[in-house]
Amino acid sequence: MKILVIDDDDAVLNYIREILRHDGFNVLTTDNGSTAFEKLARNCDVTAVITDIIMPEEEGIEIIKKIKSEHPHIKIVAISGGGKMSPQSYLQLAYAVGADATLRKPFGHKELLNTLQNL
């Protein structure tokens, strides 16, 4: 399974990448939505995307909408630690626009892997 991870926080990006690689996943990463779509265009075998909701260049909600519109077969896991609203509010909005699953930061190794297995 090839997974694209989108998060503007390097620590979170590295954490997720290491967990997934350790468990045998092929992982692509990027820190913003624009390069995410470039990577998706070059890697048509991506089966899942993990995206943060709150990011400076392009919000995760817009990324989810666009992926679901252009690549409806790709499963999406939205992640959030909150911001101006509670993390749960952002994650509910992510579900409403097409996310297949959500995780509230911080999350653990097992929680991430269980979420991916249940997609």
UniProtKB/TrEMBL annotation:
The modification 4-aspartylphosphate is found at residue 52. The keyword Phosphoprotein applies. SUPFAM superfamilies: CheY-like. Residues 2-119 form the Response regulatory domain. GO terms for biological process: phosphorelay signal transduction system. InterPro entries: Bact_response_regulator, CheY-like_superfamily, Sig_transdc_resp-reg_receiver. It comes from the Bacteria. Keywords: Phosphoprotein. Coiled coil: none annotated. PANTHER family: CHEY SUBFAMILY (PTHR44591:SF23), STRESS RESPONSE REGULATOR PROTEIN 1 (PTHR44591). This is Response regulator. It comes from Prosthecochloris marina.
